[in-house]
Amino acid sequence: MRHAEAESKGAFQKDIQRELTLAGKGQAAQMGKLLSQLIEAELGGLFSSSAVRARHTAQEVAAQLGLDEKQIVIDESLYHASVRIFLEFVNQLDDAFDQALIVAHNPTLPYFVEYVTNLSFSGMSPAGVVKLHFEMESWSWITGGSGHLVWYKAP
What we know:
Blueprint: H1 22-38, E1 45-49, H2 52-65, E2 72-75, H3 83-91, E3 100-103, H4 108-117, E4 129-134, E5 147-153
């Protein structure tokens, strides 16, 4: 999932500190509600970039999924991650999880989708979510061309 709509960067503000706009909070809640209807099995993990906008998106989604905010795992490596770093993160997920939700950023997310599906995927709107499927027994086996795109949803 891409973080929801964020404020523009202020002159004295660091990018990592950007907050969600009011519209962004609504987008995150809307997509969380949609995900609560679309997720068939228990969500194994909810992970977020350390950027404020990503964390707040994850919090809004968690609330809609009935998850405690303490269940969100914040990982600094997801902020400005390359596809290689993002793949390493995915490869290290606990195999006890059948599915996971990762809140991160453009352009990494669409590039990752392209890499693992071999499809052209031109970007994600704020709060956009992709569902990928992998016929594998371990997250560590995920690599280029190993998955397929099930759906893409956006507010």
